[in-house]
Amino acid sequence: MKTAAELYDLGLRDLNALVAYTLALQESVALNSRNSSKPPSTDGYAKPKPKSLRGKSGKKTGGQPGHPGTTLKPVEIPDKTEVHPLSSCPCGCGSDLSGQPILSYESRQVFDLPPQKLVVTEHLVEVKRCPISGELVHAPWPVDVTAPVQYGPNFLAWLVYLNTQQFIPLARIDQMSFDLFGQHVSQDTILNAMKSVGLKLLPFAEAIKKLFLLEPVVGGDETGVRVENKLHWLHILSTETMTWYGVHQKRGQEALDFFAILPEFKNRLVHDCWQTYLDLPCLHALCNAHILRELVFIHEECQQVWAKSLFDLLLDMNKKREEQKLVASCFPPERLLEWRQQYRGILIEGREVNPPIIPAPDTPKKRGRKKQTKAQNLLDRLEKHEDWVLAFLHDFQVPFTNNQSEQDARMMKVKQKVSGCFRTFEGAELFARIRSYISTARKHGRSILKELKAAIIDNPFIPNAAPSG
């Protein structure tokens, strides 16, 4: 931020530059999680009033018609039955009913947890003496029994589940194990279980990278993570059925080249218009949630009507697309042309109230992008990347937003809130690989705990390739 003296000198040299700097300061103060990409945690106590960008659907709250529901229902064969005898009449007469025949039963069922304990299985191998060599020999141990005393795959999967899915810290996992089973568990045991799962998921990690190259549409995003008290970057690729995470020291092209997925990807990538993504040799689609938030800012903070017009137009386009998907696979060309004309007409209105800032003739040229207001920057983007902003109209596989990737990033941010940072880069990589596996299994409706056990016994779940077409 400039000092008062610097602002005075700037005003004397270039009044337009001073105005631009003042507008930039005003815009930065007005930014919050509702009108920009800033996270809600930066809003402080003066949070903006919640207001969804989706608008009202007209549906009643609660489960919708056809939703299966999760109401507790009785089972046909209970695990345990308790009979409560009727020996005296409850109607008030006090008659003895112990000798009366039972006419029927009324039943109620109580679902509860069984007593918790670890089941210990002792493995005994027969020991015999070889009649030829005279040496003592024994039967082979089961392949998963490798120590005199050890934990089984179910318990190890539970430990990994608590830390990587529920984000419970190691010390609290130990306390939970003692409270439930009367058995303390060391932090090394938990970390070794996670390391073992992470290493056994290498086939899953390699397979899912190849599967992403076959996907017609992929969402991409990145967010900061702290590793060894230094800023690193979590890179995210996402579809409705798969999630991939990768951790790298860099955010840009060096990281993408290291992971070797997006540089080879040739289909459609949905993202937030980050230049590193734009440089990739693939098709693109821009996240309209980001654009809508910027339009909210320009309309509410800058009082520019064109932003509200474009906001309404984009939402109306998406609504009509959802309706069209029910009856057809695309829009008629004349409908698309009509929307294009509306879109461009609104941008012309925006340019009329946001003319380019022309520097004074004696202003020295500076390297880099010229200073502009948020409205001018957004208009540049909307004009230059019109096809990618409106890609969702032409290809119904393209989502209106990149919310799936942002949702997949959210759980990793929760992990950071709980633990602060990763102690080692290896630990961050292992955690990212396990979370890729967990998120993918969940998207397929599979039990996370069961799939973690499957990984421990060297049988990890690997999704199939998406059907072509």
Architecture overview:
It is built from 17 helices and seven strands. Helix content is 44%, strand content 9%. Strand 6, helix 8 and strand 7 form a beta-alpha-beta unit. Among the domains are: 31 residues, no CATH class; 67 residues, no CATH class; 119 residues, no CATH class; 98 residues, no CATH class. By secondary structure, it is of the alpha/beta class. It is extended, with a radius of gyration of 31 Å.
Strand and helix map with partners:
Layout: H1 4-13, H2 15-30, E1 127-129, E2 136-138, H3 153-164, H4 170-181, H5 187-200, H6 202-214, E3 217-227, E4 230-238, E5 243-248, H7 253-259, E6 268-271, H8 275-278, E7 283-286, H9 288-302, H10 305-324, H11 333-353, H12 374-384, H13 386-389, H14 391-394, H15 403-419, H16 425-443, H17 448-456
Parallel strand pairs: 3-6, 6-7
Antiparallel strand pairs: 1-2, 3-4, 4-5
Helix pairs in contact: 1-2, 3-5, 3-17, 5-16, 9-10, 10-11, 11-12
